[in-house]
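Fold these two proteins, one after the other.
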Amino acid sequence: MDYDLLIPKILDYLTKLVPEERADYCFHNSHHTQDVVDAAQEMSDHYSLNSEEKFIVVAAAYFHDTGYLSGGAKDHEIRSAEIAEQFLTEEKVHALVIEKVKSCILATKMPQSPRNLLESILCDADLFHLGTSDFEERNKLMQQEAEHVKGVKIDKSTWRRRTIELMQQHAFHTDYAQEKLNQGKANNLESLLKKQRKSLNKLEDEADKLKKP
């Protein structure tokens, strides 16, 4: 099978599936999908994947968040895998390849659980931004999206604490991502921790002022 011909078909299919961006999903949109695809391609080249392996990773990257369209964040990985399976089955892709695409998508569910290199590549591609200079901007968009979807304002300190917890619990799976992104991720985490300490110190100062007669 000529996998190179299938990628444009996936793009065409997704364009029809998502004719326009949804305002409430300002993070999980075509920009994020393309970032994940680019990162997946970058790592696929680094590991010299063959055409079938590269197709599995890139196809999974394109489909990995499509489940948001029909049910939001909860269990979106399952719905994304089902959407990928339906499309790839119609394109007569081998069942084993389809299962590997689905497994890559399902592995991205938090906490991530990759079992092999292909799944590890997609998991790292999905959270690539944690170690890049785009982290702060992307994190703000994630907060805005969460606020839109839940319909409530999320306090900056609360969001910062949740993000710190996520980053402290997370680890990149591939040696490529570790070597390229760990230092950037550490810098981004330290920036959040500094802001957290500053916020806590401000609260303590205000509390002390209230105690004084």
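Now the second one:
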Amino acid sequence: MSAILIYIIKSTLYLTLLYAFFLGVMRKTPFFRLNRWMLVVGTVVCMLLPFYSVSVEETSMVQMPMQSLNAFLAETSVHSSVSEEEVAAAPVMEKAATETENISFFTILSFLYMAGAVVCGWLTCRSISRMQRLIDAFLPMWKDGVWLVVVPDSIASFSWNRHMVISEEDYRHHPSVIIHEEAHLRKHHSWDLMLFSFVSILHWFNPLVWMAMKELKQLHEYEADKEVIRQGMDATEYQLLLVKKAVGPKLYSMANSFN
């Protein structure tokens, strides 16, 4: 378990630097595609960097903090394993008391981390399950490369994987909603959300991860809005529709809901 925590600590440092730079510098720029790929590709790189090590003769100023962290974590891990060996070698009568006294910081931290990860994983699975139940409740239609699910109830239209779930009202009276959700599907925004959902489970304690996920969803909306306008929809009419839809509930955290 200590190896997992060491990986989490290292990847947290890399992700924090990436997201802090993005939120402080890039989020206000109009380069939606660039910002999206910066978040997605940068996140993948930050998750892989802890597995990669480079040996150099001279340590630079940039490398010193990470090397110090590595030394500290290695020393802590060794101390924890030594404590466990001492507990195993203790006399039977004193073993219970020794175990209580030698509960390591890593043990407590591991328990808290796993509890948070389990809760976040359960919430993610619940969101996917709710979407799937709604999709399965109606007969999907294969249309232009996507599964279209028309729901008679008044719901917030959303897209997930290769499914577009849309209310009957939007299907009949708001073609811009269809174009918007089709843009989400064509640009594979669901894949981004699946990646960030996995990252948020591993890094549930890092508020910058949740902020970056929110920014990514916003970038998805900007890209979809741009596609609607590109296809000739009236911008003013579309803005009024967005305002009207903004007050509706967003029930599926894993989906790109129309907003």
